Structures are given as structure tokens and as C-alpha cells.
UniProtKB/TrEMBL annotation:
Domain Aspartate/glutamate/uridylate kinase: from-to ranges: 3-282
Protein family per UniProt: Belongs to the aspartokinase family.
Organism: Algoriphagus aestuariicola
Keyword RNA-binding: no
UniProt KW keywords: Amino-acid biosynthesis, ATP-binding, Kinase, Nucleotide-binding, Transferase
Catalytic activity: L-aspartate + ATP = 4-phospho-L-aspartate + ADP
Name recorded for this polypeptide: Aspartokinase
Pathway the protein acts in: Amino-acid biosynthesis; L-threonine biosynthesis; L-threonine from L-aspartate: step 1/5; Amino-acid biosynthesis; L-methionine biosynthesis via de novo pathway; L-homoserine from L-aspartate: step 1/3; Amino-acid biosynthesis; L-lysine biosynthesis via DAP pathway; (S)-tetrahydrodipicolinate from L-aspartate: step 1/4
Enzyme class: transferase
MF terms (GO), sorted A to Z: aspartate kinase activity
Enzyme Commission number(s) from the entry: 2.7.2.4
Length: 422
């Protein structure tokens, strides 16, 4: 049996009916049995679902938001199917199910679990539409629910993969099917040991592609994006970017760790462990080679810029005239771990610990609440964390012009600054 190929199409590649048609053309000459196609929610659907949840939590009316989301999906269907096609009833039905779930009680206490029962809806409806359209174009795919095989723990919103169980389910349930048909499934979602829906963290569909590739022993993963490949900076923010023809796993992982959003940070490691190459290709120019991320890439020294937005700088100052010691750091990190907050940058001084974290709903309040009795705490929100890998010294200042720098750190290979527009 040939080795499985995994393709992943993100929100941008299914953002409207034209995009779905383009995806179909990409698959026309490439579709084969032994292929898994992972799709994300259409366009910004996950953001829209998050807004619905925020409104619900704030006890605000969200009926307009869900109607708009339904209309958005039905309009995509209108661009793909003739009137009366069964997909319209299926989509209506899926939205009824969503609206039904949204009737249930939501509070800060059950927020994460509730969130996971709602936000994966974007992937479920998107994958239904795409599978149906491919079949209507004689590109036969079998729609499968990723939650059948992607097994996780119950850390809702940031569920961790149970690799053993996922591998077992992939081998017993999907592998036999792949001998005959390609499978179309969803990114981002999984299920816990009780069968409850979980999600893998925002933008987690790239990670799903890597999970499935690893679990199925695939020969490669291709993620289709609206950029020519991995560039040395986000082209939506910086000009004069350069595409990497190839990148080592380590370099790619480092870029994503610092926040290069072109690939989800958890994607690289499982692939590197078993040496499965990852291709990042443009869905706008599918014949172009894109970027190959693999183990044998030649290292480079090209300055690479990564910008992480919505950052918060929090400083914990000791109040009892002692100096910072291990115990203080331990207390802060213990709390961060409990809140599943990752530190993007850390700086210590004699009397304070400064950390940079992502802005996340409720989390700052919870962090401050627990530690305010031990430290004097100050924080600044709405910041950007700029990281330059392989910085050229003479080039750094250009990225700081017009910005106030709140924190700065440099090593031989990495420059980081927390900045705020003046
Ligand atoms: N270093 C980079 N190289 C290429 N694209 C990048 C880079 N950093 C950030 N990006 C952004 O990543 C986007 C593609 O990722 P994403 O929007 O998550 O795609 P999708 O949701 O369709 O999977 C690009 O449009 C680009 O703005
Ligand atoms: N739809 C989810 C998962 C995802 O990965 O999407 P995308 O592939 O469009 O980044 C999100 O927006 O978080």
C-alpha cells in the first residue's frame, strides 16, 4: 500500500465559494486514495463563534451573529450548488444543532468546556460543504469526523494529544478505509476519554495534519496557504520579504515558537520525530515549489522577523526588601502553569520578575488575583513582541523607529523587544 499523503487547507483556502472551487482544482489531478484532506473553518468563522460566546457570556443578544454566520455559509453553498441540493438542508440542520447548544448555561466556570462544544462547529460545517462539493465534481472523498481518531485529554481549549490512542484509532478505523478512498476531515478538533469534544488551541488545524500524518505513517504533509511558502517575515506586515526554499525542522520550530503564525507551533515536532517532510505551498500558485521543511535542509543566516501582537507585560516586584530568588520565580511559574499561560519572554532584575504573555480571556485577572498578596504587580496591555532571528545589527533600529520599547533582550542569534506604537 502506498504511503498516505496529508493535505491541509486552512480558513483562507475555504473562505468563499471561489476558494472552494480553487481547492477543488488543486485536488483534481492530485487526489488519490491514501490521502487525508484536513480542512479548517471557512474564513474567520472561528472568530465569529468566539464572538458569539463572548456575547452569550456577557448576556448580550447573539442571534444576529449566528444568523450572519448561517447566511455566510448558505451563500457559499449558493455559489457551489444548484438550488434544492441536499447540502442546504444539512447546513440548516447543523445550525439548528448549534443554536440548540447555545441555549445551554454558560458561566466563567464551565467556559472552556462549553467553548469546545461550540467552536469546532466551524470545521464540522465547512468539511461537510467541501466534501459534498468535491463529490459533486466526481472527486470522491469520504467525510470522517476527526473526533473519532484524534484522542485527547480533557484540557478543554488546549487539549493534549493521547498519541497512543490516536495511533490505535487511526490504524484500526482509518487505515483500512484509506486503502480504497481519500478521507476528508476537520482540523482543530478532538475528543476526550469520555467522548466530549475538545480543541487543540487556536489555529490548531496544522497540528491536526501533523498528528494524522504521524499516526498514519504518512510520507509528507502539505499545508496550502495564501503565501508562496514560509517567508522571512509576515508579508501582510513587512515589505521586501524573502521566501525560504527549504528550512530545517529546528529553524521552522523556532520561528513558530516566537510567533510566526504561518504554521501552528506544535506542528513541527511530531513530524521531525519521524522525519516526515512538511511542504508549505501557495493555493494561489499550486505548481510553485513553496517551502520544504525537512531534516536535511542547509542552515541559513537570513534575518527573520516575527511579530506577536496582543501581548501583556507583567512585572512582579518583591515588597519585603528581599531580592528575587528561586522561590519567587517558582511561585509565578506555578501560577502560570495552572492557568496554562506560556511565557513569551522573561527578564529578571534584583527586585522584579518581568514576563510577557499572550492576552487571553480572564487569565490576567486570575493571575493577578492569586499573586497580588505576594508581589506588587504592574502590567501593560496592547503590546507587540518583536523577535529577530539572525539579526543584522545595523538593521535592528529600523524596527523600533516610532515605537516605545518597554523591554529588550539580545543573544548572539536572537533579538527581542516589547514595543508599543508612540
Ligand atoms: N514568516 C511567514 N511567512 C509566511 N506567512 C506568514 C509568516 N508569518 C506570518 N504569516 C502569515 O500567515 C498567513 C497564513 O497563515 P494562516 O492565516 O493561519 O492560514 P490559514 O488559516 O489559511 O491556514 C499568511 O497570510 C501570512 O500573513
Ligand atoms: N479554525 C480554527 C483552527 C485553524 O487552524 O484554522 P486555520 O487553519 O484557518 O488557521 C481557528 O481559526 O483557530
Amino acid at each position: 500500500m502506498a504511503k498516505t499523503l496529508v493535505y491541509k487547507f486552512g480558513g483562507a483556502s475555504v473562505k468563499d465559494s471561489i476558494a472552494v472551487k480553487n481547492l477543488t482544482e488543486i485536488l483534481r489531478n492530485r487526489l488519490r486514495k491514501d490521502m487525508v484532506i484536513v480542512v479548517s473553518a471557512m474564513g474567520k468563522t472561528t472568530n465569529a463563534l468566539e464572538s458569539i460566546l463572548s456575547r452569550k457570556l456577557a448576556k448580550e443578544d447573539f442571534s444576529q451573529n449566528s444568523s450572519t454566520l448561517k447566511a455566510f455559509h448558505l451563500e457559499i453553498c449558493e455559489g457551489l450548488f444548484s438550488a434544492g441540493h441536499p447540502i442546504f438542508a444539512q447546513v440548516q440542520n447543523l445550525f439548528l444543532q448549534l443554536e440548540n447548544k447555545l441555549e445551554l448555561d454558560l458561566s466563567r466556570e464551565n467556559y472552556d468546556e462549553f467553548y469546545d462544544s461550540i467552536v469546532g462547529f466551524g470545521e464540522l460545517v465547512s468539511s461537510r460543504i467541501v466534501a459534498e462539493y468535491l463529490c459533486s465534481q466526481d472527486l470522491l472523498v469520504v467525510w470522517k469526523d476527526a473526533r473519532e481518531v484524534v484522542k485527547t485529554n480533557s484540557d478543554f481549549r488546549f487539549a493534549k494529544i493521547d498519541w497512543e490512542e490516536t495511533k490505535k484509532s487511526c490504524s484500526s478505523q482509518w487505515k483500512p478505509l484509506l486503502g480504497n478512498f481519500p478521507i476528508l476531515t476537520q482540523g482543530f478538533i478532538g475528543s476526550d476519554p469520555k467522548g466530549k469534544p475538545t480543541t487543540l488551541g487556536r489555529e490548531g488545524s496544522d497540528f491536526t495534519a501533523a498528528i494524522l500524518a504521524t499516526s498514519l505513517g504518512a510520507s509528507s504533509v502539505t499545508i496550502w496557504k495564501d503565501v508562496p511558502g514560509v517567508l522571512n517575515a509576515d508579508p501582510k506586515i513587512f515589505s521586501d520579504t524573502r521566501k525560504f526554499d527549504e528550512l530545517g525542522y529546528r529553524e521552522a520550530a523556532e520561528m513558530t515558537y516566537f510567533g510566526a503564525s504561518v504554521i501552528h507551533p506544535k506542528t513541527i515536532k511530531p513530524l521531525a520525530n519521524v522525519d516526515i517532510p512538511l511542504f508549505v505551498k501557495s493555493f494561489l500558485d499550486p505548481e510553485a515549489p513553496g517551502t520544504k521543511i525537512h531534516g536535511a535542509a542547509i542552515p541559513h543566516e537570513v534575518p527573520t522577523i516575527v511579530l506577536k501582537k496582543e501581548q501583556i507585560l507583567v512585572s512582579f516586584k518583591v515588597t519585603d526588601f528581599t531580592f528575587i530568588e528561586e522561590l519567587h520565580i517558582h511561585r509565578v511559574y506555578e501560577r502560570l502553569q495552572a492557568l496554562k499561560l506560556r511565557v513569551n519572554m522573561l527578564q529578571l532584575s534584583a527586585i522584579s520578575i518581568s514576563i510577557v504573555i499572550d492576552a487571553q480571556l480572564f487569565k490576567l485577572d486570575q493571575l493577578l488575583e492569586k499573586l497580588k498578596s505576594e508581589f506588587e504587580i504592574r502590567y501593560n496591555e496592547g503590546l507587540e513582541l518583536l523577535t529577530i532571528l539572525h539579526p543584522a545589527q545595523e538593521g535592528i533600529s529600523a524596527y523600533l523607529e516610532g515605537y516605545e520599547v518597554l523591554l529588550e533582550q539580545a543573544s548572539r542569534n536572537t533579538f527581542q523587544a516589547v514595543r508599543r506604537k508612540i
